Amino acid sequence: MERSESEETVHIFTQLGEYLIDSILRGESIDAIKLIVQEGAPLWYQTESEGMSALHAAAYMQNTELVQYLIDEGAIWNSVDNLKYTAADVALSFNNETIYTIIRNAGIRAEMLLTLLSSRSEIEEPSSLMIRSEDETAAASTNAFLKSRLNFIKDKNGQEICVVKVGDEEIGVMMGWEQGIMQETVKNLCEDHPSSDNLKVLNIGFGLGIIDTLFQALPTRPITHYIVEPHPDVLQYMKRLGWYQKPGVKILERKWQDSIQDLLEVGGFDVVYTDTFSEDYNALRGFFEHLPDLLAGPESRFSFFNGLGATNALFYDVYTHLAELHLADVGIDDRFFQLKRSYSLPSATVPASGHSERRLYETAGDIVLYLSTNQPNPPVPFELQDQMTPAVWLTRLTALANTAQRYSKPWFERIWTVTGILASLILPAVLYNVIYNHMNVRGADGNVDFARLSEMITFALFIGVFLFFFTPIAIWKFIGRKQVDRLVSKWNGADRMNYGQNASSTWKAQSPGIFRNSTILTISLPASMKPTSFHPNAYLPSYINGPIDPDASYYYPYKSEPGLPRMSVIGNVPLHIDEKRGFEDSRV
Ligand SMILES: C[S@@+](CC[C@H](N)C(=O)[O-])C[C@H]1O[C@@H](n2cnc3c(N)ncnc32)[C@H](O)[C@@H]1O
Q: Where does the RMT2 domain lie (predicted)?
């Protein structure tokens, strides 16, 4: 059957597109790829089976020059494959920062340009990102949200939450766990504020009232505290809690968009915070525009809840940068605002009782644990969770602790050492006179220097006593070290067998030195085991490593679980944690 002209065009593009991607994956030279592109191969083409674009393929091959070339030629920075990963996600999964940054910067440029164009023309939809609101449900449309019923409940884990029903699912509008973030925000906004004695505060979005409660609990209560909240159920909740009676609190029962004229008339706010729901970036940017007129002056502070595109490290990063640039555009620089980049801290994964663990994250990917028998065992580090069950981890730590403990008795070592030192000093000193006198009595030969001879014998005695006390302890410690080494090298061998030379971690243990009882366990992770910032429950392709904070899965079930709400979405992208900051040393 004859193909129509348009079918023929699609066919040619498909062939060229497939050929381009194939050639990249085969590792063809950049000149060969350039020729294919010049022949007209479409950069927007994505394979049907995987949704892979030329940019995905170049990122997968970790070909920096090619990635840069494709971007320069107009490759789409934010196209997602069938698993919803962008090319930058692929780069991230290899921890390839250079390629990630090239694509990220292309995203920032593209978004800036689109915003600029939209401000000069009538284009309604400035954002090319997929997180723009295509979703007309309460999760992403303010109108639908304001018409939906909200529930203020305690979930099965005792956490206070405010949820909205979207279809069959319940989506969290605000969750009790965000308390920590709100605390940190209030600290950054209010601590050492020059006007802390008569603060004028504006908060957009009451939710569970966490941040407003914290503002009210400041050492000096704000003199004026405006709260903008449009949802009737939230307003009811506020009434029940007595917010309408609080001195200095003024509640505007409308959306911020409808309250802005009133707010601008009030003006002169020292602290402004915004954390709405179901709004997209354009709305937030719209709010930014009013900041210069809302804030009192250079000492004023502004912050917002940064959940922008947070399901995906790339979109989150692009939007965070975009927000910084747009804030700079309206004259707000980073002296005035706080961007909250992370939703939860890695330390949240460690139970409060886990004092035995001190973790140092080094760039090489070492985990250093100080294990002590008087402290509970730390949980399996998340980097090892795909290789080690908690049972195996516990067995290993217990075996290590028992072995090390057999060769570590700090109190006995102290007493033995003190006795040894005293014996090596006192015994020769006491015996010196005895030896000297004894020789003097017996000696007849006037040429012999008895004093010198006695000194030498006393010194030999000192060495003898010293060795008597310290040789056994040194041998005992040495045997202990060997035993620990043997144990650890057995595990290293087993891990190598199971996971291969390059993918297994390497353990090294240092048994307790003298007077000490903590064993230092250093686990060197292979390069590929550095965690990425994907959602703990997300379906990840094999080349993407585990998440940073597995405990966050409780708060952000990717797919909703019975009894737990799903976190909100912007457009079609579910929100989840993003931990793009580097690890820091943390003592817990
Ligand atoms: C995530 S909650 C805020 C939580 C709050 N920061 C806290 O500490 O509990 C979002 C709130 O913003 C409100 N909201 C949504 N759209 C809004 C708008 N356009 N203007 C003002 N508030 C809005 C919602 O009704 C909801 O109460």
A: 136-385
